[in-house]
Amino acid sequence: MSTMNLEPVPGRTDEMIVNMGPQHPATHGVLRVVLGLEGERITRAVPHIGYLHRNHEKIEEARTYPMVIPYTDRMDYVSGTQNELPFVLAIEDMLGVEVPDRARKIRTMFFELFRLASHLVWMGTAMLDLGAISPFLYTFWDREIILGIVEKTAGARMLPNYYTFGGVRRDVHPDFFKEVADLLDHLERRMVDYEHLVLESPVVHARTIGVGVLSKERAIARGVSGPVLRASGVAYDVRKAFPYDAYPDVEFEIPTSPDGDTYARFWVRFQEMYQSIRILRQLLELTPKTGPFKGKAPARIKPPAGERYRAVENSRGELGVFVISDGTDKPYRVKHRGAAFSNLQIIPDLFIGAKFSDAIAILSSLDPVFGEIDR
Amino acid sequence: MSLLQEVWQAVKAIGTGMATVHKRVYEEAPTEFYPYVKPDLPPVSVQSLALVENEDGSERCIVCLQCERACPAQVITIERHRNPEGKGFLIDRFDIDLVNCMYCAACVEACPVSSIVTIQDFEMSTYDLRTLRADIDFLHEQARNSRQWYSPKFGVEIRTEDGRIEKAPPEMQPGGLAEILKPAEEVDS
After folding, report:
1. Domain B48-188 classified CATH 3.30.70.3270?
2. Which domains does chain A have, with CATH numbers?
3. Which end of chain B is more exposed for a tag (fewer CB within 10 A), N or C?
4. Sign of the C-alpha dihedral, residues B154, B157, B159, B164?
């Protein structure tokens, strides 16, 4: 049997080979899973990726360092500036650039705004997969407000190209802090509704509790990270383990759940949104309204020869970048460690033995974004 | 769980869902009636690129090739020759392939004289991609048609009724005002 395509087992007539995707609406993009079905039960599952491959890492080798930043944006298109940060941090480390305190805090505020935006998209699409349409409309409504705030400062909604070596590209809009405060008040009211519609709904309970259980050992062995790992009871968060930017200055908790099922992953993402709101509230107090937003970076970015790995905790888990510099103005190698990519490889573990309709719920709880997986 | 409890659970869930949805019915909808009502985009919003001319119609661009070097997608093509009378260069060709442009505004950041700017005209959808291979006339036309544009060096500039180019008032400017309010001569030198 080839590993690429599932072939029927000779003599077995009760197994049906079903191709899910790459245009299946519940696969959040262009994932193709070949499933072996025995009635409703999944007996075999082989995921296929690469339909959105754009050769990011190779293109980045042919670009100068400042040119790479807009390309990193286009990996995880749902969480905007979060993708730029690991690359920016790695180059800042190599160059020894000092980032002003205010720039760090602005960067962290944008990071958390995009976490909220990304989790709102996840909530809407996950509920859409389970058959509920209203939450999708409401979450995109709220995300619209976040993207509006981002656009006013950064100039673009989803691919802002906002971080730069030594800080951010331009100062925040004068209304930024007031708008974020209003947004947080608004979101806190809305989160009550979302709890009613999602976490407390008996339909969601029936579809998710006890479905797709990922054990702690299996999660660690497969290298998953982010909410998927924390829902299996491992309190690993890059923001706490290897703090960056303004995270040492703020207080927050790492929500974990011992269950490891689909509902636990839903629950952990909800708690993360509360923690994001908490972090943003503290940063609103801590960030000076005026001051420097960009440190002194050299005009021509030429890091000394060497290598550097930096990771951040984005909405999906540990997003890392490994840069090798050979002393010229172009990177010798850029390797991205995508969180959604690592999370996706537990699909065979979770799918086998589950029902076909549960596979949709499990997949949406992993929150894959194919821009980042295929790169 | 008894049948009565299950029925009660179901009724409660439907009730909560309906109440939540009902609450939203009376809220103001965020949708925009786009073709009839134009969206009010912030002045820094990157929707398209334009090449600004001076008030007297002369070229603002000094053909320094900074934008060509800064472009991550490498879609800008410039050819130039030395000015036979006086100093500097003259443009032979200034093309931007707006199909492959990724609107990161790196060229606008790099421009020392704020000649290439971002504008808010987003209505560029077309049936023929060849119309998006912008040459210098196309880029000038884009600038002539826009009321305001943005560049990090000069901030937001507006075209007044009588065709003059002015710096927008501070309330229209985005963040980083101190940098924007620097006099233009300082940047030129």
Report:
1. yes
2. 56-374 (1.10.645.10)
3. C
4. negative
